[in-house]
Amino acid sequence: MARALIATKSSKLFRKHSDWFLRNDTGQWSLLDSMGEQLYALDTTLPDVTLWLVALMKQVRAWGFDYIKLDFLYGGALKGKTSQQHATRSGVS
After folding, report:
1. Higher pLDDT, 22 or 34
2. Does 2 have pLDDT greater than 50?
3. Tens digit of pLDDT for each residue in 35-67?
4. What residues pair up with 32 in beta bridges, in sequence order?
5. How far is the CA of 44 from the CAs of 37, 52, 64, 65, in angstroms?
6. Greatest CA span in the chain, whole angstroms?
7. 92 vs 47, residue with greater confidence
8. How far apart are CA 3 and CA 79, in angstroms?
9. Using CA atoms, how far apart are residues 50 and 53, in angstroms rounded to an integer?
10. 42 neighbors 7 (Cβ within 8 angstroms)
11. Residue 12 Cα distances to 16, 32, 35, angstroms
C-alpha cells in the first residue's frame, strides 16, 4: 500500500524506488508502525520524488477529482537522512 508520503515495504513504489525513502544514521530505513504495519517515509527533498508527487497529483486531477483529501502527510516531516544536507521539517535551509 502506498499513501501520499509513506508506503509499505510491499508497495509497488517501495519495491521500485526503495532509494527514495528516508534513512536513519545507521543507514536503515526510517520506520513507522501504524496499526501493526511498517511504514516508510519518502525523502521529499529528492528531485525525483518531487517530480513523482507532482505527476501523481496531475493524474488524480486528470481523473476528474476536484477535491483531494490526503492523510498521513506527517510522513513528509519525519526525521531521517535526506538528500539535502540542510533539510529541516519546514523546508530546505
Report:
1. 22
2. no
3. 778 888 888 888 999 899 999 989 999 999 988
4. 39
5. 21, 10, 26, 24
6. 43
7. 47
8. 18
9. 5
10. yes
11. 6, 18, 20
Alpha helices in 1-93 (DSSP H): 12-16, 47-62
3-state secondary structure of 74: helix
The per-type count for the chain, helices as H runs and strands as E runs, is 2, 5
Domain extents in the chain: 6-79
- Read off the DSSP letter of residue 2: B
Q: Cell numbers 517515509 correspond to what residue?
A: 41
pLDDT tens, residue by residue, 3-17: 568 888 889 999 999
* Amino acid code (one letter) for 45: T
Backbone dihedral angles phi then psi of residue 81, each to the nearest 5 degrees: -70, 125
Cβ-Cβ contacts under 8 Å for 87 (sequence gap 6 or more) = 45, 93
pLDDT at 84 over 70: no
